[in-house]
Amino acid sequence: MSERHQKPEFHLGLIGDNVSRSRSPLLHRLAGRQHGLTVVYDSLIPHDLSKDFDAVFADCATGDYRGINVTYP
């Protein structure tokens, strides 16, 4: 697909522990698709990233995320 015809991309994330079974990533990707958007939705598990909640949250604030959901702490 040429750059001119690419769908807009939204980078979203979910911060929390035990979110591997969350349906949020699928829900947001499907909702984006219905509106012609490409949604990238990351599961951000502080332990897996070797960071605490505050560090992960700060990374999201300074990164390219358009929005995040927080289920932790």
TrEMBL record:
Enzyme Commission number, as recorded: 1.1.1.25
Alphabetic keyword roster: Oxidoreductase
Protein name per UniProt: Shikimate dehydrogenase (NADP(+))
MF (Gene Ontology): shikimate 3-dehydrogenase (NADP+) activity
InterPro entries to which the protein is assigned, alphabetical: Aminoacid_DH-like_N_sf, Shikimate_DH-bd_N
KW Oxidoreductase (keyword) present: yes
Domain Shikimate dehydrogenase substrate binding N-terminal, chain residue ranges per copy: 14-73
